[in-house]
Amino acid sequence: MSSSHIAAEFEAQIGAFRDKLGFYPSHSDSHKHVHMLPQIFEIVSRGLEKHKIKAVRLTENISADELFTSQGVPPEKAARCFEGRLAKTGGFYSYAASTALSYPRTFLGTYSVGSLCAETFEKEISGYAGSDAVCEYMTHPGVCDDELKKLSSLLAPREAEFNALKDPRLTQILKKYNIQPVSFHDLK
Predict the structure, then answer these.
(1) Considering the entire predicted model, what is its pTM?
(2) Four-point Cα dihedral 76, 78, 80, 86, nearest 10
(3) pLDDT tens readout for residues 100-146
(4) Whole-number Å distance between alpha carbons of 118 and 165
(5) For residue 135, which of 26, 27, 142, 150 sits 20 to 30 Å off, Cα-Cα?
(6) Quick one: 101 exposed, middle or buried, by C-beta within 10 A (0-12, 13-18, 19+)?
(7) Nearest CA to 113 among 75, 156, 144, 77?
(8) Distance, CA of 114 to CA of 162 (rounded, Å)
(9) Cα distance between residue 146 and residue 160, in whole Å
(10) What pairs with residue 87 in β-bridges?
């Protein structure tokens, strides 16, 4: 796929968001984290700058290549994609030194997709209690109707996460660890 095609699609999606909702998104991310591929990240960064969107989903606690190997991309192929394009920090390929965009320094939820529950949530966030860390917790909640059920087999995990997010124990866990939900707009 050409860079110009990716840039045009990015512009189309940002434009559609703006036209439909009347404002720009707080940040950018992508399905399967494809915006973290170096060639695509350059395009996304320029587009975000153009529209004065100052935040993006990145990870410092999970190596960029690990996000792809965890989805079945062979490790050597993932490494080739990042080698020479991103610095390694603490053994991780990271965009930290190459972007002025804001992002949460910690990314959670990668390994609990479809199995989110209060116990899993607490286990993942408890290690950040008392720190000043800003963490993003990825979820994929959804309510499925008959039309959606015809389109995908990945819907049951979305409904499970939707129900898990309504569990009052999550609010209690946030209070227990003095964790405040924030927006990407709050990032500095």
Answers:
(1) 0.81
(2) -140
(3) 899 998 888 877 777 889 999 999 999 888 888 889 999 988 888 88
(4) 9
(5) 142
(6) buried
(7) 156
(8) 10
(9) 16
(10) 94
